[in-house]
């Protein structure tokens, strides 16, 4: 049992094992963005109950309950701000809000962030923490994967801009199968659970137990699916170093004014 | 002629005959297997197939032909006699190659492409599967058969009763299939005899050539790719292939592709763009494969790469959901200019069973989940996710696969004609716009500040920064 105060001081990292526990989006943005430079985007964009979905509780009520409990309107915060003097466009997902599930609002906010970054030629940083697509929105939430990938195509392939994705605990399902794994550089936090199909689904399919440590960041690193594993305390510095490296290319001069 | 094992017949619905006449099958004695191949007129009628269906152990999914010439009728009669003489053996052996060891001279006439296809008709007629909601129909059919047998045995005339029952059967069938509930449509979409991707292909193409491999160590059987012609125009075909029986399903991994399948699909799509083939994709999968090997080799990454790249392909793409559309596994080949769905197919973000287990905490709530998630074709057209619903014949596609394929062909060609008028840049813009508009958000309503207390508020100086301006 970690004492919360010490844990927060340590940026929610266990001292003994280096396990990175999950973190609020606010706690991520706060230290990474230079003071007095943050401009949030689409603060009031929230999901609509497009299917009139009702399981044990109606989707609308679930949304309102999550909003009250977490103090967030949706599972992602997007905006622009300076980080070590470089203007970047970060989007930070939050697992607390309905398990970080990706619905229409998350899809729309991230797409708009990418479109804004394309327009202003900013580097994009998306911090992923999600349980997958939001089932209460059905196939509409599935199409958000395609929508975000389409915006990323224009951003990365046509405009040749830099996109860094940071995979945190946990990143699963639709997010892994869309923008999570499309970063020009994919950074993961230590011991983050990164998967497409969850452990339980695999065990049911195969009828056997999944080995320990199977879908953790270290295992994916060994299999060549990630670029870097970076401890939380170094993320800010690493991001600005990467931005510098990419902006100092001699061959293609980009028209970016940082 | 001494054939010792079951002759396997491959017929293409609309293969052009080189001589212009339906030529009789050639028989070549090749030791253990005898081969016959028909090349038929594109417009020939059902004569050949229906007559062959009379002989046991041949099952064709209605590869039909129009009018037959007298010569071909004579050929069929000769063939039938020969078939009745042959010794039948259950089709269990897997030949190494799909062509005979020894070719006869007639084999070399016409197109060689059918010899390269390993997809042959099933030798044994599959057992009829009745869905739960079809049980009343089964009862009436049993009664009809009983009366017919009695009539045969006693010689009395029961035609009135039979006609009456037949009329009742037709009415009930029309009523049942006219108003299927989502749960019933899901069961039709998962029907074991629903036509698979290759069956549709062989019904709609004139020529078909399957291409294999991801050039990186694997040829995933769950995704089938190839090139073919429809009405003389060449297309690239990519689709999930389910098995027609248990053995095939195991080989095809139940149409659940691994990352290699998606990489194979991507290679084919790039190849198609390079050479100018429009792409037709067919979705029929319960989902991407969830296994250790798949995860280790980057299942998520393969799908993500496909999603991104498909938005940059400068050729028209039409996706049709012919069975189940399982979440990311379906979307991996489903980013398109036009999305079509067969009437009884479904497209879901999570299978109803999984959704029920998570949200209702019991797998028994799967019917409720099916209704709530709005996964059927008509519901998705209303949500503006799908562009058109392709009608299936009465009784579902499994009842009359050929008609279902023809409906599909007509819809695809109609949409393709419109898409071929666009230049590549407009095509890409149109594809992007199609997906950009999907999503239901609420904005402009000032939220309660309590709901935003954990959001980082704006703290940039008002005069220093440019405010975000979305054009």
List keywords for this structure.
heterodimer; A: 258 residues; alpha/beta; 7-stranded mixed sheet; 8 strands; globular; B: 471 residues; 2-enoyl-CoA Hydratase, Chain A, domain 1; 3 domains; 8-stranded mixed sheet; 3-stranded mixed sheet; 12 strands; 13% strand
Quick rundown:
The complex is a heterodimer of chains A (258) and B (471). Chain A contains eight helices and eight strands. Chain A is of the alpha/beta class.
Q: Show the largest interface.
A: A-B, 92 and 79 residues
Q: How helix-rich are the residues of chain A, as a percent range?
A: 25-40%
Overall 3D geometry of chain B?
A: globular
In the residues of chain B, how many domains can be counted?
3
N/C terminus separation of chain A: 44 Å
Supply the CATH architecture of the largest domain in chain B: Alpha-Beta Complex
Q: How many helices of chain A?
A: 8
Q: Strand count, sense and closure of the main sheet of chain B?
A: 8 strands, mixed
Strand order of the largest sheet of chain A: 1-3-4-5-6-7-8
Query: What percent strand of chain B?
Result: 5-15%
Structural class category of chain B: alpha/beta
Global geometry of chain A: globular
Amount of helix of chain B = 25-40%
User: What fold name goes in the CATH topology slot of the largest domain in chain B?
Assistant: 2-enoyl-CoA Hydratase, Chain A, domain 1
Radius of gyration of chain B, CA atoms, in whole angstroms: 26 Å
Mean pLDDT of chain B: 81
Low-pLDDT stretches of chain B: 1-67, 83-93
EC number (chain B): 2.1.3.15
GO molecular function (chain B): acetyl-CoA carboxylase activity; ATP binding; carboxyl- or carbamoyltransferase activity
Keywords (chain B): ATP-binding, Fatty acid biosynthesis, Fatty acid metabolism, Lipid biosynthesis, Lipid metabolism, Nucleotide-binding, Transferase
Enzyme class (chain B): transferase
């Amino acid at each position: 049992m970690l004492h919360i105060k010490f844990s927060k001081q340590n940026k929610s990292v266990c001292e003994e094992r280096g396990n990175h526990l999950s973190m609020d989006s606010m706690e991520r943005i706060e230290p990474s963005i230079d003071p007095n430079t943050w401009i949030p985007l689409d603060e009031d964009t929230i999901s609509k109950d497009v299917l009139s979905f009702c399981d044990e509780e109606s989707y609308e009520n679930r949304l309102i309950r999550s909003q009250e409990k977490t103090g967030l309107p949706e599972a992602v915060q997007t905006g622009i701000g300076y980080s070590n003097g470089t203007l970047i466009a970060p989007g930070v997902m939050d697992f607390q809000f309905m398990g970080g599930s990706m619905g229409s609002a998350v899809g729309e906010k991230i797409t708009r962030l990418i479109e804004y970054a394309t327009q202003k030629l900013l580097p994009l940083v998306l911090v992923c923490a999600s349980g997958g697509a939001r089932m209460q929105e059905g196939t509409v939430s599935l199409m958000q994967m395609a929508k975000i990938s389409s915006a990323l195509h224009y951003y990365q392939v046509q405009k040749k801009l830099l996109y860094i994705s940071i995979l945190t605990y946990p990143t699963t399902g639709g997010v892994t199968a869309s923008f999570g794994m499309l970063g020009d550089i994919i950074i993961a936090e230590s011991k983050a659970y990164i998967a497409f199909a969850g452990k339980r689904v695999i065990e049911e399919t195969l009828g056997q137990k999944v080995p320990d440590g199977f879908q953790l960041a270290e295992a994916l690193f060994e299999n060549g699916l990630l670029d870097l594993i970076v401890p939380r305390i170094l993320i800010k510095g690493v991001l600005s170093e990467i931005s510098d490296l990419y902006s100092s290319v001699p061959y293609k001069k980009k028209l970016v004014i940082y | 002629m001494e054939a010792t094992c079951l002759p396997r017949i491959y017929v293409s619905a609309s293969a052009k005959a080189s001589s212009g006449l339906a030529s009789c099958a050639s028989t070549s004695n090749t030791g253990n297997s005898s081969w016959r191949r028909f090349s038929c007129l594109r417009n020939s009628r059902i004569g050949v197939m229906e007559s062959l269906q009379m002989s046991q152990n041949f099952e064709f999914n209605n590869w039909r032909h129009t009018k037959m010439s007298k010569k071909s009728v004579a050929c069929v009669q000769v063939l039938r006699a020969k078939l009745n003489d042959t010794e039948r053996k259950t089709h269990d052996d897997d030949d190494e190659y799909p062509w005979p060891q020894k070719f006869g001279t007639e084999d070399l006439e016409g197109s060689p492409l059918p010899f390269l296809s390993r997809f042959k008709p099933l030798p044994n007629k599959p057992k009829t599967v009745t869905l739960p909601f079809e049980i009343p129909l089964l009862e009436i059919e049993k009664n009809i058969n009983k009366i017919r047998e009695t009539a045969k045995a006693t010689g009395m005339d029961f035609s009135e009763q039979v006609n009456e029952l037949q009329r009742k059967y037709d009415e009930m069938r029309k009523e049942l299939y006219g108003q299927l509930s989502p749960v019933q449509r899901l069961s039709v979409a998962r029907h074991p005899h629903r036509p698979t991707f290759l069956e549709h292909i062989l019904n709609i193409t004139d020529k078909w050539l399957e291409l294999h491999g991801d050039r990186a160590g694997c040829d995933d059987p769950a995704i089938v790719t190839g090139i073919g012609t429809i009405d003389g125009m060449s297309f690239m075909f990519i689709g999930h292939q389910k098995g027609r029986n248990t053995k095939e399903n195991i080989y095809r991994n139940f149409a659940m592709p691994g990352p290699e399948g998606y990489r194979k699909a991507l290679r084919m799509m790039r190849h198609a763009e390079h050479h100018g083939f429009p792409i037709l994709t067919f979705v029929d999968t319960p989902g991407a494969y969830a296994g250790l090997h798949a995860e280790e080799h980057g299942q998520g990454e393969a799908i993500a790469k496909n999603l991104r790249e498909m938005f940059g392909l400068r050729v028209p793409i039409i996706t049709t959901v012919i069975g189940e559309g399982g979440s990311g596994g379906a979307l991996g080949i489903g980013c398109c200019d036009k999305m079509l769905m067969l009437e009884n197919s479904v497209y879901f973000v999570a299978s109803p069973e999984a959704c029920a287990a998570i949200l209702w905490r019991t797998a028994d709530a799967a019917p409720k989940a099916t209704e709530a998630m709005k996964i059927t074709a008509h519901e998705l057209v209303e949500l503006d996710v799908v562009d058109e619903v392709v009608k299936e014949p009465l009784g579902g596609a499994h009842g009359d696969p050929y008609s279902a394929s023809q409906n599909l062909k007509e819809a695809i060609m109609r949409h393709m004609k419109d898409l071929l008028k666009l230049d590549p840049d407009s095509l890409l813009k149109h594809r992007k716009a199609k997906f950009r508009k999907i999503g239901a958000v609420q904005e402009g309503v000032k939220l309660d500040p309590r709901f935003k207390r954990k959001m980082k508020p704006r703290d940039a100086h008002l005069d220093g920064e440019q405010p975000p301006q979305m054009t």
